[in-house]
Fold this sequence. Notes:
The complex is a heterodimer of chains A (about 300) and B (about 300).
Chain A: H1 29-52, H2 57-62, H3 72-81, H4 86-118, H5 124-136, H6 143-152, H7 159-166, H8 170-183, H9 186-194, H10 199-228, H11 231-236, H12 245-256, H13 261-284, H14 291-296
Chain B: H1 13-46, E1 48-53, E2 60-65, H2 69-76, H3 78-109, H4 117-125, H5 132-143, H6 149-157, H7 170-195, H8 199-207, H9 212-223, H10 225-240, H11 244-249, H12 262-272, H13 276-309
Antiparallel strand pairs in B: 1-2
Amino acid sequence: MSTATAPRPVRQRRLATGRPRPASRRTAMLPTVALLLGALYCLVPVAWVLVASTKSSSELFSTFTFVPGTGLLENLGDLFAYGDGQYLRWVWNSVIFAGVGAVACTLVSTMAGYALAKYDFPGRKAAFYAILGGVLLPGITLAVPQYLLMSTIGLAGTYWSVLLPCLISPFGIFLARVYAGSAVPTDTMEAARIDGANDARVFTSVALPMMVPGMVTVFLLQFVSIWNNFLLPFIMLSDERMYPLTVGLYTLLSKGSGTPSLYSLAIIGAAVAIVPLVAMMLVLQRYWRLDLISGGLKG
Amino acid sequence: MATALDTRPARRTRRRWVAPWLFLLPAALLFVTFLAIPVCYALYLSFRGMRVSGGGPFGVRSETWVGLDNYATAFTDPEFLAGFGRLAIYGIIAVPLTLGLALTFALLLDLPRVAGARFSRTAIFVPYAVPGVVATLLWGFLYLPSTSPGSWVAARLGIGAPDVLHGAMLYPSVANIAIWSGVGFNMIILYTSLRGIPAEVYEAARLDGANEWDIAYRVKIPLVGPALVLTGLFALIGTLQVYGEPTTLRPMTSAISQTWVPLMTIYRDAFTRDDLSLAAAASVALALGTLVVSVVLLRVTQKRSFGEVS
């Protein structure tokens, strides 16, 4: 996990021993405590939902918040039985939207970023400024016109209406461009060219392997942003069975405002929803290259 | 930054622009379809509207060009404007606290002799993996008097618990959700750029007799300036687009109206009132506002941070 913060390849690697050893080995108490308080703040709501998911609906309102209850299995049963297994469909939809969307978006962004970084061609500047404008353009304000467009071409309410707008990420292209600029040496490309490789081959066998770490970062950022997206599916979809988790849980909660028994469903639903994503994040943390983002401004 | 691959002239010029445009093609098509066209369509719609032509009972409603009428309607709607006011209060709480906490945690992580730094870093990053709607749900239940640990304790002590979902407490409560979700991600970005600073810089400062506090304040913060600007920019854009959190909280409190923030008003105009032109005008205004704020922020801070670094 500690490699999550590995420096960019072009930059001089900071030596592991670079930080001067302090004379005393004593733990710095104040920073340690402050950081642990931060950790506590971030973990308490997660701990709460995990504990609350074990409570039956009567226990939810009567026992102390952080005392586990006895209703976990019952809650899980209720959750998966709700609306003929609608919850699992929501999970599945989220996996499809985020998985397919992020993979396709990563490929699109990588190709575009590579072209912008490694070629000089008419229209390059214009394309770059268009993308920069796209980064600053608040994506969500586009949701309403995107809906109008989708309903004009008859796609509103289909999977495509949520999936297609997710495939273009100006920020992803921007990151891919920064990464291609620093990770793919022009000399190596030139050498491959002299060996007779055409542009497609130079891209697939020279550039692509070098860009993998950047691609993983674009994939993860896009995966999380699609998984967390609320407004776009909320606007586009009307069939409950096509909802992703976020919109599904929202409807569960808004129906539950009158009937507290649905509260425990929303709680177990939230608990089950965060466990896989948090697990994925922790496992994949080592592959994150978030330094790309901070490097992006200078690039 | 980009270097021309091929310096041989004429013969190769065709290939030189065909290949890059082929690589760009999917992105360009998607960009035009899902960004450029919707933007233009929204612009077009924002100048259109329903007008009654002819008089009396025989009036016919038809869609025509109405100029800036929709913009005038949007900006004279007290609820829409009040939404911006509420957004400002929310943003003034959320943005500085998110960035301040993220910077503080990043600087603390970068200090020597901190125990459990890896655990704390991972724990603070966990909320990033929690979708906004789910985060709102979690905090909502922690706020809700019937399930809140605070009110449980208060009840045992025989005192009344503060109602954090109504009145003035509502703003910090909603902002807290955004802070909780955003601190970890921003902290990692800042921490990564701190780690990118060569150690020699600190050694030089130490030789000059600087302590850790001086180094943090005089060396580290100016050097992570660009990263700070970027995170600030994203926090600001995120604030202007707040929608999911207050919408999800609505079932739990009567204090959040249907038009609590501008995007909620836009959503209502478009889908509940079916006034797409008005919603388009408000969307365009919001997007333009965001663009202006981002460009101004970039301009101002870039001058400043470059001045400090060099």
